[in-house]
Amino acid sequence: MDVLCSTCREPWDTDHLFHDSIYETVASYTEAIAWRRLPVGERLAGPYWAMLKATGYEFGITLMHVIRRPGCPKDAVPRPDLVSAKSGIEELLGDDVDAIAATFSDHGL
Q1: Contact indicator for 27, 51 with CB cutoff of 8 Å
Q2: Phi and psi, residue 71, nearest 5°
Q3: What's the CA gap between 2 and 54, in Å, rounded?
């Protein structure tokens, strides 16, 4: 399933976000493997958040809420309406990332 970037609307495959995005950062192979073993709700914590952000990713509460991605145009800004709607959905659905992605898709977010 794909989720859309809130800045450029580019689709991102959820499997890529869960399994491969960490390899695009400065994380070592050992750190990347450790990240992949974390519960989904902990993958945006601590140093991993900083590594992903330094690479150009910006997320909401979960990996499903891509606010900005490395390939977004430099001058592009996230759409506040999308960020707000997606944040509300994340708050309601908590750690159920499959439901979050499906809800985003159902509503064209």
Answers
A1: yes
A2: -90, 5
A3: 23
pLDDT digits (tens, 9 = 90+) for 56-69: 999 999 989 999 99
Residue 41: the pLDDT is 79
Question: Is the pLDDT assigned to residue 90 strictly greater than 90?
Answer: yes
From CA 24, how far away is CA 80, in angstroms rounded?
26
Domain with 96, as residue range(s), is 2-106
Nearest one of 89, 85, 82, 102 to 6, comparing CA atoms: 82
Write the CB contacts of 31 (distance below 8 Å, at least 6 apart in sequence): 22, 47, 51
Instruction: Say what the pLDDT of residue 103 is.
Output: 97
Q: Cα 103 to chain center, whole Å?
A: 15
Q: For the chain, what is the domain count?
A: 1
Contact 97, 89 (CB under 8 A): no
What is the Cβ-side half-sphere exposure of residue 71, based on CA atoms within 13 angstroms? 9
